[in-house]
Every structure is written in structure tokens, then in C-alpha cells.
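Action item from last week, closing it out:
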Amino acid sequence: MQKLFLFVALTLALPLIAQAQEASRVEVFGGYSYMRLEDQNIDGQDRDLNGYNVSGAITIFKKSIALKGDVSGHFGDLLTNVTPRTDLGQTLFLFGPQFTFRKSERIQPFAHALFGVARVKHENDAVPGDITDTGFAFALGGGVDVKGLGSKLAVRLIQADYVRTKLDLVNSGDSTSSNNIRISTGIVLRFGKIE
């Protein structure tokens, strides 16, 4: 009798176990992003920049390992309370592996290591020509996605990254490293399944 009960219980639980182990093949994220940009040897103050973060991940191995492409842009004032205003923009183009912990169907934390380039642009209406530079960048971090109303929609509660850039804004031939924090939140769309 106990064996029969165990068999029936496992038979009923099997669809739930299998469902919890399903993984989406492709995930696309889009949302708001904040960056705390370390001082770039201008006035000793860090900058608060606001912008966007868009990424896509394709699962390639064991439902947990994905390849991820990430683009984010952050914008703000270089110098505050100064006219004419100097605008600052930084765009990151990053790529790398992502590991997603899929034990829970509803809450899925992830971690990633992304590498690529950063492009910084300073614009001032009173000075002709913009100051720009492109250099190496990487981001280490992760976050938590929470499943939405259906299986194709999730909310990225938080994604937090340590971002390091290496740029030469004054064309001195010597690049300066900058240690930054990026925090993002938004919506994740999921497509396809790996069973």
C-alpha cells in the first residue's frame, strides 16, 4: 500500500517538477538604469547618471549557462551650476557568459561577467567639437528576475553591476581606470523553451 501511495504521489508531482526545470531559450531585457560614475579627474566629485539598459541572452548549455549581449547608455551633467552646460554621456557595449540559478520557477537569480567597450562623450555648446574616447570596459554582477503573469514575462527586480572602464579623455596617451556602479530594473521577455 505504501509503494502504491508513493507511486501515485510521484506521478502527480512529476509534471510540477518538470515544469520547474523548464528554461527559456532566449531572454530579452529592457529598462531603466542608474550609474554612479567615479570622478574623471575633473573636480573630485562622482556623477549620478540616468539612462537605459537593454540586453539579450541565449541559453546554450544545461538550462543555466547563456551568452549575453548588453548595451546601456547613461547621461547627465559633467559640471553642475556652470553655464554653458556640459553634457556627459557614456555608452557600454558588453558581451559575456551568464549563469542563471533555476531551482525556483518564480524567482531566478543570475550572475554574469561581461566584457567590451565604453564610449564617453562630453558636449559643450560654447566649445566647438566634442571630447570623446572609446576604451576597454567590463562588468561583474547579477540580479533577480521574478516571473510575471505568464511564462513569457518577468520583472527584473534588480540588476547590480560593478563596472570598470579604462579611458583617455584628455588624449595624454595614458588611460585612467574608473570604478563605477550600475543598477538597472525593468521587464524581461522570454521566448522558446529548453526542456
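Closing note: The chain has one helix and eight strands.
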